[in-house]
Task: structure prediction
Amino acid sequence: MDELEEFRRYRERMNKRILSAGNLGIKRFFALDTRAYEEGVLPAKTKELLGLVASTVLRCNDCITYHVIRCVEEGISDEEFFEAMNVAMIVGGSITIPHIRRAADVLGQCREKKRKGQPVDI
Amino acid sequence: MDELEEFRRYRERMNKRILSAGNLGIKRFFALDTRAYEEGVLPAKTKELLGLVASTVLRCNDCITYHVIRCVEEGISDEEFFEAMNVAMIVGGSITIPHIRRAADVLGQCREKKRKGQPVDI
Amino acid sequence: MDELEEFRRYRERMNKRILSAGNLGIKRFFALDTRAYEEGVLPAKTKELLGLVASTVLRCNDCITYHVIRCVEEGISDEEFFEAMNVAMIVGGSITIPHIRRAADVLGQCREKKRKGQPVDI
Amino acid sequence: MDELEEFRRYRERMNKRILSAGNLGIKRFFALDTRAYEEGVLPAKTKELLGLVASTVLRCNDCITYHVIRCVEEGISDEEFFEAMNVAMIVGGSITIPHIRRAADVLGQCREKKRKGQPVDI
Amino acid sequence: MDELEEFRRYRERMNKRILSAGNLGIKRFFALDTRAYEEGVLPAKTKELLGLVASTVLRCNDCITYHVIRCVEEGISDEEFFEAMNVAMIVGGSITIPHIRRAADVLGQCREKKRKGQPVDI
Amino acid sequence: MDELEEFRRYRERMNKRILSAGNLGIKRFFALDTRAYEEGVLPAKTKELLGLVASTVLRCNDCITYHVIRCVEEGISDEEFFEAMNVAMIVGGSITIPHIRRAADVLGQCREKKRKGQPVDI
Result:
């Protein structure tokens, strides 16, 4: 099983466990989280870029993985990706570089999957 | 003198002092910082939104003040502003709220200045 | 007007502006924020201590001010306050000390108000 | 060997190496760290919850693993755990979710060990 | 009263209040904090630079103010100061710039005081 | 293949991918990053210590690994290493401890390699 698929399954399994624990506040937060990225006056792609850059400057690899996959689903180009990463790198400094490596790695894996006709989803 | 003008002058005065200190690395970083937000495959407005959301989740009021002013220069609407702030709030949590208050305050001051025909710049 | 009253008014005024902007996601997040601290299997005082320590290690003075006031409303003793601050200081290091100074300052102002028969609320 | 046991051993081995290096300041800090969570006017369980929530908003998986194990030793219930995680999620935002997944995973592993009659300790 | 003197007095007054609260863990942490910067195999000036850069990337103005004053006491040159700030800016990104402005401002105030024959201490 | 060699190769491979993407801002930032640690009025070893402590308080394992290797190349002693780690631990708190474990682990691996006559480089 590839790395992205492993991530997807662990995330799904743990989200299920957390959501089944009966804490209403947590459930509602998960719902708000999904809605924040839906198309509005800002396009969904722009919102995913906002999520990706926020995740990069806060340096969370799992969040980066999620948002790179979503950006690919929204049709991001390599140039758009690296311009956004440049903003993240300037704002957040060299401490973000290991996470930009991770983001570039995930982007590469997504492109590879597409080329092989495999689904890229989350 | 109003608060935004005071911010602009302090920022300008200190940047001048830092840049005149003769450290080449710092000078070049300042140049890269400016260029990262220039129009590319991503529009300047999108890049400013990326900078604003990154500054909000990292919770830096001076950076927020700067990027709100730049967003206004790029013609951001109130709805776009609050959709971006919603993403920042979801990613960064309630700890970002005092900074979102600050951002909303600066946005209000910019709108007020525009109504009075005063310049909004940085 | 005292500092805590000034804080309360600015917070109230900006919250009103943010909530009146018509962004549903932001409104709902504010509601979840309030509910997270309501009495549950954990007492309200414990939850406020969790909020205070979280705010201290994340180093947000406005959040600290808010949670110290709420802790006082829940009847926190000085000893409980400093034991919680000790945990925050150990987890977060000396970088939290300026914020622990702030927390101790706000606690002192709250105690002073109580002694004068003035309301301590948020 | 299971994941928690592996964590315990690596932690023990490296702590030993660090403490044997002869730096007095580091040794004393380790002692203060232990004492901060001892029963005082606040119960040990409350202090562990403070440590867990602080570790979650600061997003440190090893610290989370440690405090979840300690919370289980102090007899935390699932409901108490998720109420504390709700506070952490609200304060720290969606960026904490991967770490809340980790916390829920460790909690599950501890419960599983208990059911099998295996020791849960650190 | 000048800004640095105001900072010094508030810091002193609040430290006194915190230390008189009778929490032994907090008292001991303050002692460790002082000792960590004492001359060892690393010179005191190097340790103060470590404290200054750590405070800058963590973006704490009060900590920056303290360590700039201490660096001046240890005889730091402007060139050394800006080389250290360059490292902080590269590691921490543009989000550190407002704090580097603050550091440069404090350095300027210290130099000014020295020129006037006023004491620079903390 | 050992862990440090694996780190070196992944880092090299991903840096190559990022630098070949044609984003000029990113390329220039990488160049500035390298130059910031070159011998100046501050010795290269001091600058590497600044980078190591900054990486530790910001809690980035990959950055820590890189700077520990560089510190070894610059001839750091164990005592210097632990004095710097003590400053990082005091400033950053117990949340840095898992990363100080990592740093001590990498230092041990570097010392081991040297003893076996293997190269320690990045």
Summary: The CA atoms of residues 71 and 106 of chain F lie 11 Å apart.
